[in-house]
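Whether sequence alone determines local backbone shape is best considered at the level of individual chains. The sequence in question and its structure tokens are set out directly beneath this paragraph.

***
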Amino acid sequence: MTITQPIKRVLLMNAASMIIFNYIGIFVNLYIWEQGKRIMDVTWFNLVLFVVWSLAFALGARLLSVFTTRFLIRTVAISGCLTFLLLSFLHLDSRMLWIAIIAVPVGLMWGFYASTQNITLCIFGKGKDFEGYFSVATIIGQVVSIVNPVAFAFVIKWIGYSGSFLLMFVFVIGLLIVSFTIPPITLAKEPEPLFNQKMKFSHVFSYPGLRWMVPSCLSAGVFLQFQGLFAIIFTFSVSGDKLVIALLNVLYALSSIGSMILYRKLQQVRSGVWLAVGMTAICGGFLFALLQYPLFLVVSNILTTIGLFYFGTVWNTGQFRVMSKHTAMEQTRILLWREWFLNIPRIVVLILAMFVEDFHTFPFYALMGFAILCALAVPLFSARNVDAPEKMTESA
């Protein structure tokens, strides 16, 4: 498995960013949860985050018409500084307003980061690069998922949340330094602007194979957000002890590593089979959550973690291979639409989740049923989507 030098630099950026995003995903959500133990608080934080993320992704792509990816990553670092400053010093009477203000710079971080990563990967990635990138990125993610939660659980026990917020500035500065090493990609030299008549849906998704990406992304957005939100809340419901929460996240990471080892040993198995296995594990995990006991909530998260590994590796690799057949500007337009098609259903799920008060109500069951149907639909849509290059060749 060979990885080009530009992709190695993107992986370095990925590692630096993952430390920050992993901390936010666990401990900032936990910080919000602990103050009221309300599903609505965590849901509201993630809802504002994804709205801003969607806008920031588009803004990031637009900024690349003037600046380079290095500028965007520096903006990510600045947004990170602002996030931890607000967490340390901002105090408001209105809790919902306070949560929303915290979520805005986090959404900017995710949006600009996703824009930089995806556009860089599309432009530099060719063929096997995608499989290599997502495989190594998964390893990096799992190492961070093992070390980060335990380390910061001890840090928070010793010096509290405020101390950990200040410590995160070290990692934000590290990301700022890394920004000087990544490939300086820009769209400034492209002969046409990003947003013109060619940005229309009918022009971007110009052949049937590529259009199957749309329902695939819409379905994926639903079950990804259901899993992302409730996996956090399930974990918080099992224990309030930060070290226990950290160790549970280590367990989830180890289950993903085990899945990766199996995936590599059985390379002869078709990608469509792995995707089906992943979706089955995710659906099984959702159903285990209905049993409501702490042990079954842990089993639920293990199964969905395993499923997400297979989904993320196979599904992302297939879609990026499709997009790599296009020009840089075409890829950027596809990525913009793709991000919106992923985040719009995420936002809808979060709005619906605002009505979930606990795990024993009809809104929770209905939302889970919808997520399961969407998860089962993904392999069907994906099978048609990955045929896009062949379809495009035939039409040519």
Residues 55 and 72 are 14 Å apart (CA to CA).
